[in-house]
Amino acid sequence: MSIQSFHPPVRTLMGPGPSDVNPRILEAMSRPTIGHLDPVFVGMMEEMKELLRYAFQTSNQLTMPVSAPGSTGMETCFVNLVEPGDKVVVCQNGVFGGRMKENVERCGGTAVMVQDEWGRAVDVNKVEEALKANPDAKVLAYVHAETSTGAISDAKTLAELARRHDCLTIVDTVTSLAGSPLMVDEWQLDAVYSGTQKCLSCVPGLSPVTFSQKALDVVTSRKTTVQSWFMDLNLVLGYWGGEGKRAYHHTAPINTLYALHEALVILQEEGIENSWKRHRKNHQALKAGIEAMGLKFVVPEAERLPQLNAVSIPAGVDEAAVRLALLSEYNLEIGAGLGAMAGKIWRIGLMGYASNTTNVLFCLGALDAVLSGMKAPIDSGVAVDAARAAYAG
Ligand SMILES: *Cc1c(COP(=O)(O)O)cnc(C)c1O
User: Fold this and answer.
1) Which of 36, 266, 384, 387 would staple 285 via disulfide (CB 3.0–4.6 Å)?
2) Which fold has domain 272-392?
């Protein structure tokens, strides 16, 4: 055996996640590993909770990162709040709502689905009808920013509806956190999960979650035990919960937590409103370039996510060949369509550290060159100038 060390190429990541990681975060990760019960580490954990409360705009006591990717944050919310026999109204307008249904059913619950067209926001009127028709529902679950289609839904109004019908909310904010306005306390969201590798531009592998007191009370007064040992918050909080007193639950991913701490310090330095504004500004410039080329967005303007741009593939273009050319010639990654959108769209991410002027101009230039080289039906040579004009204006 003579396998050598692994050295990945340097890419620009403009897909649906992971996004480019800020070098400050990679540097933080390489600092010495210490024990997960070391008092210095425990001090860092307390800062982490404070920083996450800022990111989520909440004062929820239970605010912490789950030690695994976003999907585990999703599962943590469902396994803790849904007991066998519970009814959950699940909104689906893309891939991730479908995963919520899977979660409900694996918890022994019943999912009442509210289906919307992929590429559109969740229709609040349909949700209201479903809540009226199911007065015994316990939870309303929905995705704030649907990464599979690029649509944002009205998380605030959906939460109001849920409260009016005596339901808790489970809200997926994996792609919205730090990229689009998200106000956990003001909007009174109950169980909220996110991820690190989207608009926080951190390495993948952690899932920040926050639970309202109302949601936590439901968790601690369950009739049945949580079927997942690892995700049972009643146990996890023995490690993350207490001020000072910490019991071993699992070995925390120490260096990955250094990375998240640094990502959140960077967010605090920029200011969360500034981060939202930056995501919007770069989206506007990308949009100007995409539309100048003659390409079309999938999602209507008012329901569009700035950090995930779903673009329809022009007729006759081999979409996979375009992505391969971008990757091999430009070291640029953009995303393919997922689920029902596979083969129909590209997903251009402008998330976190990757949401910047250089990337917007680079991506438009590369896409223009590759599509022109393939004789695709686009207006060549105008995209970059259109984006520059959008920045100037
Ligand atoms: C990425 C994503 C997830 C899953 O996160 P992982 O870290 O890949 O497990 C869940 N929901 C949404 C909306 C996402 O974009």
Assistant:
1) 387
2) Aspartate Aminotransferase, domain 1 (3.90.1150)
Q: In 3D, which of 43, 317, 8, 290 has the Cα closest to residue 150?
A: 290
> pLDDT digits over 110-164, tens only?
999 999 999 999 999 999 999 999 999 999 999 999 999 999 999 999 999 999 9
**Whether residue 150 has its Cβ less than 6 Å from ligand 1:** no
| DSSP type of residue 139 | E
Strand-strand pairing, 168-172 and 139-143: parallel
Question: Could you tell which of 13, 71, 122, 351 is best to mutate to test the pocket of ligand 1, judged by most ligand atoms within 8 Å of the CB?
Answer: 71
* Dist CA 76 CA 95 (whole Å): 18
Give the mean pLDDT of the chain: 97
Ligand 1 pocket residue status of 143, Cβ below 6 Å: yes
Task: Assess whether the C-beta atom of 77 lies below 6 angstroms from ligand 1.
Answer: no
Q: Where in the chain is the domain with CATH 3.90.1150.10?
A: 272-392
Query: Atom of ligand 1 at shortest distance to CA of 72?
Result: 9
Among the four given CATH numbers 3.50.80.10, 2.40.160.10, 3.40.640.10, 3.30.360.10, the one describing domain 23-269:
3.40.640.10
Give yes or no for residue 97 CB within 6 A of ligand 1: no
Residue 328: φ, ψ to 5° = -80, -35
In angstroms, what is the span from residue 244 Cα to ligand 1's centroid? 32
